[in-house]
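Lab notebook, bench 4. We co-purified these components, and the gel suggests they stay together. Before we commit to crystallization screens, I want a quick structural picture of the whole thing.
Request: model the full complex, all chains together.
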Amino acid sequence: MPTLKQLAVESLTHLVEGGQERLAVDDDARGILREWMLAARRGTQVVVPAPVPAPEPAVAPAAAPEMSVEQKLELLRTKAADWKAARRLGTLRETMVFAVGNPHARLMLVGEAPGYEEERQREPFVGPAGQLLTKILGAMGLKREEVYISNVCKFRPSMGGNQGTANRPPSPEELAACSPLIMAEIRAIQPACIVCLGGSSAKGLLGTQQGVNALRGQWLECQGVPVRVTYHPSYLLRNETLSARRALWEDMLCVMQKLGMPISEKQQNYFR
Ligand code: URA
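Here is the predicted assembly.
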């Protein structure tokens, strides 16, 4: 049975994910929250008296069925479409682009924000960078449909007026406003491994200020899931040097290893 603390954290997370920023609490609740905060600072555990269990009803009511991953994602997609924290900024465009792929994927790839083509097709990574990503996945022996592909920011950042095909990276405020959504997607999917594509994705997921070069080459963690940070495919489109392509491929080989995928000699030696 979940503890009072777990239930409280779950309810508060749910409210925050729904865009709520303030909450009225009575004196009792304030006292409990204060105790938890002080205990967290001291690094000790507060024992909260367990709620007195309600007497068993004579006939057990049907247990509320656990939501499936698909249902959780559908709920998140609906919430995202009207995500107040993002809308309030007034700097993101109207169309919400959610995610694509397999809700039961072991590999989740997270980019920064939709661009022109993604907004038009309402699907992440379908423009030039997306086509390169699909090729990279193919080289790993994976199809797009087998993985889960999403973005930290669910709206194309606005550049004002008619911005044509121009795109800009999301600001820290835009990343922060949308990050509860990607966090909830991670909790729903529980992938075995996440790849952050580019610095904005790493900032949104890991809360770091460091860039890709400093973050590459190590396993990091987001909500208990191993994370590998690598270059955004659009960086490779701009910078077609062998060393950049080799670096991204080495990151992907580490991901394949983490996932226990077979690695052929050809894959191992692509850029050698
Ligand atoms: N770049 C991203 O980061 N995400 C997309 O969906 C497309 C391009």
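Residues 13-21, 43-65 have pLDDT under 50 and may be disordered. Worth comparing against the SEC data before the next meeting. The longest helix spans residues 172-189.
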